[in-house]
Amino acid sequence: MDHLKKYITEINDYPKKGIVFKDLNPIYKEPKIWKELMFPLQNLISTKKPDYIAGIESRGFISASALAFKLEIGLITIRKPNKLPGEVIGTNYKLEYGEDRLEIQQNIMEKDSKIMLFDDLLATGGTAGAAGNLIKKAGGNLIGYAFLVELTELKGRENLDSNLFVETLIKY
Question: Which regions span the lipid bilayer?
Fold first, then answer.
């Protein structure tokens, strides 16, 4: 998948100074390229037989919704504070460049549902780790993590449950 790196734009000092942002929008605007990237993930995730894919706000929603649609399974959204209606469960966590909070609707899934967590990028693992803990706190059975891009030098995998499936397609 390294040949797809040419479609990923790098933006220095965004969203904060010292961060090199990986912009996947050029991939999303090219249907054939996006399909080439998504097809292996679709196949891998289907072997795990999840009940739901949980996408992390906001860039995780894009591909998570496409995967859920293709796999004919439900989509669960994990959002930033005050974006979901009704009762929510939340958790605070540290980012590569600060602190944040994630929330999930309290009764969005059946107890012990198999959940595959998806985000566009794995950096430090803080966001994905917090989202995984949130799924467990909400009664879900987290079965793995999937990402389009991984920044390997930040060792984000070390902050994820090592007993679970972790898949990334493009590594930097």
Answer: none
Q: What is the pLDDT of residue 97?
A: 66
Note if 96 is an active site residue: yes
CATH code of the domain containing 167: 3.40.50.2020
Q: Is residue 25 part of a domain?
A: no
Of 30, 36, 87, 96, the catalytic one is 96
The boundaries of the domain holding residue 70 are: 48-171
41 inside domain: no
Reply yes or no on whether 59 is catalytic. yes
Q: How many other β-carbons are positioned within 10 Å of the β-carbon of residue 36?
A: 16
Q: Which of 59, 79, 103, 150 is catalytic?
A: 59
Look at residue 52 and tell me if it is in a domain: yes
- Residue-wise DSSP of 68-118: HHHHT-EEEEEBSTT-S-S-EEEEEEEETTEEEEEEEETTSS-TT-EEEEE
Please write the tens of the pLDDT for every residue from 13-23.
Answer: 998 899 899 99
Number of domains in the chain: 1
